[in-house]
Amino acid sequence: MSTSARVRSARKADMTARVVTGVAAGSIVAVAVFVLGYIVYHGIGAIDWTFLTSIPKDQGRAGGIFPVIMGTVFVTAGTAALTLPIGVFAGIYLAEYAPRNFATRAIRLSITNMAGVPSIVYGLFGLAAFVLLAGFGRSIIAAALTLTCMTLPVVITATEEALRQIPADLRQASLALGATRLRTIRKVVLPAAAPGIITGSILGLARAAGETAPILFTGAVFQMRRIPDSPTSQFMALPYHVYAQVTSVPGWNRTLVWGTALVLVAGISIVSILAAAWRSAQRRRVTW
Amino acid sequence: MSEPFSSRRNSPGRTTFRRAAEGVARGLIYTCGWAAIVVLAAIAVFLATNAVRAMREAGLSSMLSGTQWYPTSEPGKFGLLPLVLGSLYVTGVALAVCVPLGVAAAVFISEFADKRLTEVMKSIIEFMTAVPSVVYGLIGVAVLIPFVKDAFGLDSGMTALTGGVVLGVMSLPTVISISEDALHAVPVDLRRGSAALGNTRWQTTVKVTLPAASSGIFAAVMLGLGRAIGETMAVLMLTGNAAIMPTSVFDSVRTMTGTIAAEMGEVVQGGLHYSVLFTVGLVLFAITFAINLAADIVLERQRKRWRR
Q1: Does A216 reach chain B within 8 Å, measured CB to CB?
Q2: A63: which of B99, B107, B140, B171 lies 20 to 30 Å off by Cα?
Q3: C-alpha–C-alpha distance, residues A4 and A7, integer Å
Q4: Which CATH superfamily is domain B69-306 in?
């Protein structure tokens, strides 16, 4: 093959590769847009004030989803209240205190492995540990504890990464002024790292709100006339409501189920987008 | 580390209080530091202790080699093979969808696309992770089940193929973002060196960048695999859940995850069936643990390689 022919074929291969990989990327984007469009198109018809504020009737075939939304809000709030302190402390430990040894390596390995444990296995664990052994029964608290175990690796990782991005000068300046290590963390490092920690945690919690498998056996119910009034009561939840309708209600109302799915996806997306936007605004404001 | 000078001049009670508070906070930090290990160990212990009865009465080897899953017959038959195979079929389809598409998309995003396009694509793909699995299941029920039924002339559109395709789509963001990170981590010097020798972008990608990032891409595939095996709700809604030995991807299958989700609500707590479901959970835990460990080791090696 002559040199120019080789160059030509190399250029042709380059062009083909661009097109092929571009089509692959484009088709994935198309799928994502289709998914979003499909949910919005089918769900938007159900969304009105009555749907959002009234209780389900006729096994969810009619009425609204108010207690369902509140159930998800309560469980997610409970998860946040439990995950944030534990996760942030653990992140501080890893970023500021952990020695470089085998134990720390084991902790890191546990965190990545926790992130890979199937959600249904968390459900089994929650059933055995929190519902039965701890005696919480099927309840908001048992479900929140289960989701806490699942969300913990996200919060720990977010905290550690945010803390690691704070320059050492800041810490040293604070220590040089006579502050103790803990004071430095509380007054200097944590405030500077807060946007990263909070946004990372919110993203993790938003995902937890969409999970079905961990709450299947730990407290979610399909039918409930009232809004949960204590941490030990059972609850309805948006993802479980969608699942239960599709699999066990004959003649489920398509519009209302898609409406429920839209409320769930919109809730997760809006919270995630707001959190990410807030973080990047903070980042622009703070410069080292 | 000594206390700050000024605090010594405060009343002694205040200093003692502050010291105590610091001690408590430090204790909390050290305790929570171990939370991950504690939780992971607790999961293993709880699964194992609840699985003991099944191992003793049904036997682990006879469960793993049994081809019949009739948990409610008298006596119950607890062969896990149909469930394991069901998971493998669905996961196989998922990998066939997400590996070629995901790696190709990662190559495009990292090597060919300009910066603005990259940002747009990444945020759209990021959106895919915000969609809960039950919603993917719902879309599969509405769109893919009728499509598979018509396209292949089947009696039912609930097949391993249907579940696998949706699972593949769900695993795409994982595969793309980790592959893209791996490609991104390859030092720019290598690419420039290749370009200086007269290679095109694609030649550089095939001969330099992809081989250099291969361990990271392997990890991406492993993590995608782990995600697919562990997924529950979408497969439960889409595969038809027939617990029989599958012979092709057009058969209805029941996965390990789907079995736990579908049956745990109806079993007697502490009974044999209950314990068998924990055994299924233990098998799942062991599989995903091994996969994640492998991916972690590979990623760690890659990180060391490019550390400057």
Answers
A1: yes
A2: B140
A3: 5
A4: MetI-like (1.10.3720.10)
Does an H or E element contain B77, and which?
strand B77-78
Q: In this structure, which amino acid lies at residue B179?
A: S
Tell me which residue has tokens 């290990």.
B37
pTM of the model: 0.91
Contact B72, B268 (CB under 8 A): no
Residues A85-102: tens digit of each pLDDT: 999 999 999 998 989 889
CB pairs under 8 A between A and B: 269
Tell me the residue type at A160.
E
Q: Sign of dihedral through CA atoms A163, A164, A167, A171?
A: positive
**Inter-chain CB proximity B29 and A272 less than 8 Å:** no
E strand or H helix that includes residue B205? none
* Residue B138 to chain A, least CA–CA distance (Å): 8
- A residues 85-144 closer than 8 Å to B (CB): 85-87, 89-90, 92-94, 96-98, 106-107, 109-125, 127-129, 132-133
Contact list, A106 vs chain B (CB under 8 Å): 37
* Residue ranges of domains in chain B: 5-58, 69-306
Please give the mean pLDDT across all residues of chain B.
89
Tell me the C-alpha distance between B163 and B138, whole Å: 11
| Interface predicted TM-score (ipTM) of this complex, two decimals | 0.91
Buried-state track A257-284, b at ≥16 Cβ within 10 A, e below 16:
bbbbbbbbbbbbeebbeebbeebeeeee
The CATH number of the domain covering residues in A50-285: 1.10.3720.10
| pLDDT single digits (tens) B216-233 | 999 999 999 999 999 999
Distance between A286 CA and the closest CA of chain B, angstroms: 22
